[in-house]
């Protein structure tokens, strides 16, 4: 496991919508840059994201198949907050359902102000992935400053058992990945 966080709905009762985006391809990317960074048939996945809601959740909206192609002209020209895109799907999850997806699928979050959202969100990656796959994983996982503090994470509260050994192994692999990848920059800005 690499990334793990909690997606929560607004507590003030006001909904909001995230813009259409891909997690590792900036909106400013050219068609050629997108073509280089999307998944290609036959390519081994280096990582995948997942959502597991604790309450029924329909906040994830995506365009199936868009993870393996550049955006269409209509998708490029659409208002990022303008609502629907052709072919979009609202992912309907019941509490306890689990969905895995490529984080470069064209997607957004739509948070309803009148609905409780508590969804576990994370990513898993291949520890044996090297080269360009490792750089993709590093950029996704270590951006947002994670690379600057993960080495200092203290797992002493876990005692001396297997849980601590597992946590320390995960931390060690993240640190090694960060050192091998170098400066990863940011995929999403704003």
TrEMBL record:
Pfam families the record matches: PhyH
Q: What is this protein called?
A: Phytanoyl-CoA dioxygenase
